[in-house]
Amino acid sequence: MDKFTKLTAVAAPLPMANVDTDKIIPAGFLKTIKRTGLGVHLFHALRYDNQGNERPDFVLNREPYRDAKIIIAHENFGCGSSREHAPWALLDFGIRCVIAPDFGDIFFNNCFKNGILPVRLPRVACDRLIEDAKLGGNARLTVDLERQVVVRPNGEEIRFEIDPFRKHLLLNGLDDIGQTLQHASAIAAYETRRRAEQPWAPAITAG
Known about the structure:
- This protein is an alpha/beta fold.
- It folds into 2 domains: about 5-175, Alpha-Beta Barrel (Aconitase, domain 4); about 175-205.
- Helices cover about 30% and strands about 15% of the residues.
- It contains 8 helices and 8 strands, in the order ββααβαβαβαβββααα.
- Strands 1-6-7-8 form a 4-stranded antiparallel beta sheet.
């Protein structure tokens, strides 16, 4: 998992509440277990018409937001069914940070496991950032995880809170597997000792 330290990028304004996981990635695209290739289907019903043509009025179909790495939305982003494909689709498109007043719990947790930083800010702060984002490519936002601030184009800093352990994981690029591998030497020592003490037991090997 890629580390998240400090991100300066174009932000896409998405002033919508209750953007559920089915809107983020429709159920018809959940047949794959790969984390790649889902970005083209991100917000499928919002991005494309019934013939598969791009809707020119949707933000991610316009410049400079095609290269956005941040999304700013309203309340309850990522609500609905639990599907890890939702953060996979965001990440595959290039999104590394979502800013909103609050999030669906499962989506919120899945973001951290996939290298996406979900930032909770009050609605009034999100609205200010949405107005900044509407200015386009010359109004980039900076999200500094180490300092826990979002920096507006005018230099104003907005502080956000984050669980210290989750912050540590993102700063160091550690997903669940990465956390386990941090203890690889201890695991190997245990297996060596176990084989000596219980030679009849089957060996446990990493996949």
